[in-house]
Design a protein that fits this description.
The chain is of the alpha+beta class. It is built from five helices and three strands. α3 packs across α4.
């Protein structure tokens, strides 16, 4: 028993749509994994907590407050910046760091949806 052209077209369309959804899910999961790796570090969690408490800070304030070398603080801030967890704002020669609250809310929602699936 053969399939009609309409049925074949429908099956092909369903497979294409499924493939696109699989691709989007893969990209979302890969992105989530990168973000979770970025925040799954004690020092970066301390930086996030510090920024949450202080709203915005200079890198100098961060490394002094956490008793770190400047290079170590900068390295961890770069990881958080790459994951879009912190924002930067330059004012003259000074760069201020702040939390990207919208991004953190997205991460929380994504993790919540993954837990409840």
């Amino acid at each position: 028993m053969g399939t009609t052209t309409t049925e074949a077209s429908s099956v092909k369309h369903t497979k294409e749509a499924s493939g696109k959804n699989d691709q989007m899910n893969y990209v979302a999961v890969k992105s989530a994994a990168m973000i979770l790796r970025a925040i799954n570090h004690k020092l970066r969690q301390q930086i996030i907590k510090l920024l949450e408490e202080n709203k915005r800070m200079m890198v100098t304030d961060i490394y002094v407050k956490l008793r770190l070398e400047q290079s170590v603080a900068s390295q961890h801030l770069a990881i958080l910046r790459h994951a879009n967890i912190v924002n930067t704002k330059r004012e003259g020669k000074v760069i201020y760091y702040s939390l990207n609250v919208g991004r953190i809310e997205e991460i929380a929602a994504l993790v919540q949806s993954m837990v409840h699936e």
